[in-house]
Design a protein that fits this description.
Blueprint (H helix, E strand, L loop, with lengths): L6 E4 L6 E4 L6 H4 L3 H12 L9 H4 L13 E3 L2 E5 L7 E6 L13 H22 L3 E8 L11 E7 L4 H17 L3 H12 L3 E5 L2 E4 L10 E5 L10 H20 L4 E7 L13 E7 L12 H5 L3 E3 L3 H8 L6
Parallel strand pairs: 2-13
Antiparallel strand pairs: 1-2, 3-4, 4-5, 5-7, 6-7, 6-11, 8-9, 9-10, 10-12, 11-12
Length: 324
Amino acid sequence: MNLQPIEYRQDPLTGVVTFIHPRRGRGAYFHTEQELIEQMALQTREGCFFCPDKVATSTPTFPTELVSEGRLARGQATLFPNLFAQKSCAAVAVLSHAHYLRLDEFTPSLFADAFILAGDYLARAHEVYGARYAEVGGNYLHPSGSSVMHPHIQVIASNAPYHLMTTFMEKGKAYHQRYGSVYWDDLVKKEKRLDERYLGGIGPTQWFTPFAPVRHYEVDAIVSGAVHILDFDSAVWEALAEGLTRVLKAYHTEGLSCFNFAVYSGPLGQDLPYFRAGMKIVARAGIQRFPVNDIWYGPNLLGSGFITRPPEDVAALIKPWFQK
């Protein structure tokens, strides 16, 4: 038998198992052909309805009871309904006037403006329609699940949580009942003390790589004292935007081109003393002529993580960007 060193780790809260196989390498997944991306940008720019010359005339508007002005705008960001809604209240926020950005070209202000619009929209959806669960997420370039190249994010509200949120709430409540403290607050304290995966703090947010990541180059953030997105003020959104931008710059130094992120939340308007809202960011397979998807049947169907770079190594890569 050809035995290879593979590490097994289990998430201390959810119990999800991650397999770490550093000898497998990452080249097939994350190789990026920049010339191909530039060609794609040229080919898709003319017909892009997210570009500034079309976004005000080619995108739908909200019902007046939700957004009287039809769309929301701030800086370069514009938020409008998603024609292909995933859930009952679904919006898209275009980030920039630029049709394509390298990962090192994203700026905190681009994300912050879109995030603040997202918070406004989700507050309205909660007030007008009684939406209980909210999420803000992004898929950048087609290997990440995006159908439109132009930088944008998804802003979604509904009355049903994702399975991970249900697990977080159930496990967080059990932890609180047993220890009398908040799991995520204790986790941040431990990560700071160990200083193996802790990246740093930005305003009311704390950043680290998780002990048992389920995706490649995963970075987590916790929002101190916040249970749900309605608890976020502009300082929280700006801190998340700053941290996300730093992570993307670090990804760029590795030659990465695609990513996903998600801001997750407890039930809107509910004060759960055992829960904390946060963000997750992961890298995705790169743009290449003969792509290899980084998610195969193991993580897709069987519910475990499989990564090729330990989170301690990822932390060492990203931490310098949090010390500037």
